[in-house]
Specification:
Structural class: mainly alpha
Low-confidence stretches: none
Number of strands: 0
Largest sheet: none
Strand content: under 5%
Mean pLDDT: 88
Number of helices: 3
C-alpha cells in the first residue's frame, strides 16, 4: 500500500492542492516565530512540521482505505 500511496495517490491533483494549502499554513505559523528563533532553529521546526504533515496525509489515506474496505465488505455481506 505504501507504493500505491507514493506512486498514485500522492501524484493526485487534489492531494497536491491540499499539500500546497498545508504548506502555506505552515509558513504562516512559522512567520509568527521569526523574531523568537534563529534561522537554523526555524528550519528544524519547519522540517518537523513537514514530516508531521506527510505522516498525517499518509495515515489519513490508510484510515480512509480501511473505512472504504469495511463499508464495501458490509454492503456485500448484506446483499
Amino acid at each position: 500500500m505504501g507504493k500505491i500511496y507514493e506512486k498514485v495517490i500522492y501524484q493526485d491533483e487534489d492531494v497536491q492542492k491540499v499539500e500546497k494549502e498545508l504548506d502555506m499554513e505552515i509558513s504562516k505559523l512559522l512567520m509568527q516565530y521569526e523574531s523568537k528563533f534563529n534561522k537554523n532553529e526555524l528550519e528544524i521546526i519547519r522540517d518537523l512540521m513537514y514530516a508531521a504533515e506527510s505522516k498525517s496525509m499518509q495515515e489519513g489515506f490508510w484510515l480512509g482505505s480501511r473505512y472504504i474496505l469495511s463499508l464495501l465488505i458490509s454492503m456485500l455481506s448484506e446483499s
